[in-house]
Amino acid sequence: MRLGRNLGLKCPHCSALVPSAHRWGTPFECPGCGRQWQLSRRYYDVVGWLDVALGACFALALGCRGWQLLWGIPAGFIAATVVVTELRFRFFPPALEPWCSEDRHWG
Ligand SMILES: [Zn+2]
Question: Do the domain assignments include residue 75?
């Protein structure tokens, strides 16, 4: 699997723009300094929980209460993820951390 979109990644070492296209399970390579990077898992953990909170707010704003929240929060999470993802990549691009081959299941 290849990530085709430009994530706006910058090398933490030399600040060069790092191409977003790469094979899943392989490192991002900086064209400036040649270092290898991976996406910060912590970034996506934080973003994921923010999307869940936003999804819960979305469901509550639409009037979901009690057991309706069982489907309302996941539906709100999906809606929040779709709506916010483009803005997030534009204003808060994912951070990079040094490549760890043992953590290669993470893109
Ligand atoms: Zn670099």
Answer: yes
**Residue recorded with tokens 């990549």:** 89
Domain count, the chain: 1
For residue 38, tell me if it sits in a domain: yes
Query: In a structure prediction context, what are the per-residue pLDDT tens digits for the chain, which is 107 residues long?
Result: 444 567 888 999 999 999 988 888 889 999 999 999 998 888 888 888 988 898 899 899 989 899 998 899 999 889 888 888 888 888 888 889 999 887 755 55
18 C-alpha to center of ligand 1: Å? Answer: 8
CA of 81 to the centre of ligand 1 (A): 30
What residue numbers bound the domain in which 73 lies?
Answer: 9-103
Please report whether residue 1 resides in a domain.
no
CA distance 66 to 18: 46
Q: How far is the CA of 34 from the centre of ligand 1 (A)?
A: 6
The whole-model pTM stands at 0.67
37 C-alpha to center of ligand 1: Å? 9
Contact present, 59 and 73 (Cβ < 8 Å): yes
